[in-house]
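Table 4 source record.
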Amino acid sequence: MSDQAKLLGGLRVLVPRGGIWGDLVSQALRDRGAQTVIAPLVDFSHTSEEDKLVEALKDLKAGEFDWMTATSATVADVLKHHNAEFHERTKVAIVGEATAVAFREAGYPVTVTPDEDNNTTFQLLKEWKDIDAGEVLRVLTLRSDVAKPVLTEGLIERGHDVTQVLAFRTIGVPASVHIREDIDSGRINAILVASAKIAEEVRKQFPQLPPDTLVVCVGESTVAAAEELELAGASGRQADIDAIIDAVESAIDHSDMLD
């Protein structure tokens, strides 16, 4: 067994999202020796802007947009649900490894994605040459209701014609009785908290965590949300916390955690 595979030495980690995101994160944790339990605490529901989304997807098919952007793998699911079609003239900018995997698996185009070592929204805005070429572009941005509109704002600041649509809502999902029992008994050693919404669900669903349970927050906005919620976990095991965060960040960029 490699040194990397020994880092988390059998630690049982709850991964709070399923799908491609959960699979990528779980594999990265297992590669470091952890045992993973995928138990979604959030899911995705129909948008409050359904009519606007339907109209935007009609325009997408008609070639009304120069570009479309996505920073979440769930956008691919939304597109499939609506049987969305891309006009051949429309290019697609993607942020996040899980997002890119989901788009490619769905058969959708991916024109631009940031360097894999720095796959962030800010890096996309730096590398995306077309948005600084002087031409006003018509861009469709699809995102979650709880995601920060960093990409949308960056495009608007550069003078582009942006149609922003909340493509889906992020909602809480109750953990199963089995999962609650495993957490209450301490059989799950660490809970991965990968967004502010997940922090809310952990605080609400598991108000009395065992004192030895690690609450591992990834990303500055998540840490801030956890602090505001007074969501605390075991201390004194910083090596384990650092190893979990490193594993997650090796598989998923923070942009994938904003849903």
